[in-house]
Amino acid sequence: MEPLSVLQTREKSAISRLTRNSKLFKTIIKAIQDKKGENIVSLDLRKIEEASADFFIVCEASSTTQIKAICDYVENQVQEKCQEAPYKHEGRQALQWVLIDYVNVVVHVMHPEARKFYKLEEMWSDAGSQMHDF
Q1: How far does the chain reach from its first CA to its final CA, in angstroms?
Q2: How many other C-beta atoms can be found within 10 angstroms of the C-beta atom of residue 120?
Q3: CATH code for the domain in which residue 104 is found
Q4: pLDDT digits (tens, 9 = 90+) for 72-110
Q5: CA torsion through residues 54, 134, 28, 65, sign
Q6: Lowest CB count within 10 Å: 52, 56, 101, 110, which one?
Q7: Total structural domains in the chain?
């Protein structure tokens, strides 16, 4: 076992951060657009220390059927093109707000009423945002 003084002198390895040009990010955005998700916004959380991910991608769909279709297609396309499965997903029972967690990118597919109520963009207003509609 090494003494603590050795641990303090080691250089920290650079953590690989995602960008909006990453394959995972682009695949998610395209999948949402293909299934006609609306008001697509990405929030860049990389400069916020408390953030658990590099990006949130938020969109809305007008029905539970469309929410399910978007979520299924995002998971399918990310698996097919990036060979990644979600770490976790929540909300598939009620289909009002479904969260798909890819660790560095968290996708939020929301019914318009839920989006208005929870106001994620306001909650993370320190994050840089970008629209991704057609």
Answers
A1: 56
A2: 17
A3: 3.30.460.10
A4: 999 999 999 999 999 999 999 999 999 999 999 999 999
A5: positive
A6: 52
A7: 1
